[in-house]
Design a protein that fits this description.
This protein is of the alpha/beta class. The protein folds into two domains: 218 residues, Rossmann fold (3-Layer(aba) Sandwich), CATH 3.40.50.1100; 96 residues, Rossmann fold, CATH 3.40.50.1100. A six-stranded mixed sheet has the order 1-2-10-7-8-9, with helices on both faces. The protein has a four-stranded parallel sheet with strand order 5-4-3-6, sandwiched between helices. Helix 9 links the parallel strand 7 and strand 8. The termini are far apart.
């Protein structure tokens, strides 16, 4: 089974002593999105979607987790732990199971989408519910990480960033060039950090456009948000761990970090599913919502843009209830006009 460590080992901090714990992650589709381009007033062939929900556990987290777990095993860890809004816990649990390690996840009580929680449960994670938000859960995880033999696998773990940077390598290969603009959701800010690292190592410099939810936009306001609120649970984070590196990515690339409302996120979420055939989780749609918001203001950047969709739509199935279809019921064997 090939994964991204095997594919990119010369550009990753691994040696012949590093056991490769993989589920075949990476090599996700880059989908041309002409209807998104049209909606943004841009020419055909100018917008692409990096569909990270095609990773084994349904999110980009697998890119960093394969390396973080592999290095934990190499270091002799007996278990791993993390705080999570959902996707990190699902990925950590799966890769820990693959490696035969214990996995403990700290989750904000009642704030993790059902699809993600079910993954952590089925992969055998030991779940600790925290009566608070993600940032408070992360403080507890950091403290618990001092337990002998356990490795913290949140994005503060540098191996996570190293693994995630490979998505930038893939985009360069798939496009055959560097994009001019890179749109990405921002929560804990490890992913925008990783993509910028990957681009820089490749000699590329697209403008980085990060998008936070309006109710959880500390990088926009310049100060932590004590009680972040948004239906986009994966980016409901008030104090990003990778704050400084995200700002550096913005400034060094000449890009920006903005915010989109829940209504704008939901609109992009539905548009992607119905117009491009790509079903992502709501937080993922923040990247496209950001592009469309700039377009509405007459500020859509020219050139080729890549929008990262960080997770699969089945991660957060409860959101689809907001778009309940009209259902027609007929008797079996009856006739109906379409």
């Amino acid at each position: 089974m090939n994964g991204l460590i095997a594919r990119w080992h010369r550009r990753l901090p691994v040696t012949g002593r590093t056991p490769i714990i993989t589920l075949g992650e990476g090599n996700t589709p880059l989908v041309r999105a002409d209807r998104v381009a049209k909606a943004a007033g841009l020419p055909p062939g100018s917008v692409f979607l990096k569909v990270e929900g095609a990773n084994p556990t349904g999110s980009f987290k697998d890119r960093g987790m394969t390396l973080a777990i592999s290095k934990a095993v190499e270091a002799g860890a007996t278990g791993v732990l993390c705080a999570s809004t959902g996707n990190t816990s699902a990925s950590a649990a799966a890769y820990a199971a693959r490696a035969g390690l214990r996995c403990v996840v700290f989750l904000p009580k009642g704030k993790v989408a059902a699809g993600k929680l079910s993954q952590a449960v089925m992969h055998g994670a030991e779940i600790v519910e925290v009566a608070g938000n993600f940032d408070q859960a992360l403080v507890m995880a950091n403290e618990a990480a001092k337990t002998k033999g356990f490795a913290l696998v949140n994005s503060s773990n540098p191996f996570r960033i190293e693994g995630q940077k490979t998505a930038a390598f893939e985009i360069l290969e798939q496009l055959g060039r560097a994009p001019d603009n890179h749109f990405i959701p921002v929560g804990n800010a490890g992913n925008i950090t990783a993509y910028w690292k990957g681009y820089k190592e490749s000699g590329a410099a697209p403008r980085m456009f990060g998008w936070q939810a309006a109710g959880a936009a500390p990088l926009v306001s310049g100060k932590p948000v004590l009680n972040p609120t948004t239906l986009a649970t994966a980016i409901r984070i008030g104090s990003p761990v990778s704050w400084n590196s995200a700002i550096a990515a913005r400034d060094e690339s000449g890009g920006m970090i903005g915010k989109v409302t829940d209504a704008e996120i939901l609109s992009a979420y539905r548009f992607l599913a119905r117009s491009e055939g790509v079903f992502c989780e709501p937080s993922s749609a923040a990247s496209v919502a950001g592009l469309l918001k700039l377009a509405k203001a007459g500020k859509a950047p020219s050139g080729v843009s890549v929008c990262v969709l960080t997770g699969n739509g089945l991660k957060d199935p409860g959101i689809t209830a907001r778009f309940a279809p009209k259902i027609r019921r007929v008797k079996a064997g009856g006739r109906m006009k379409l």
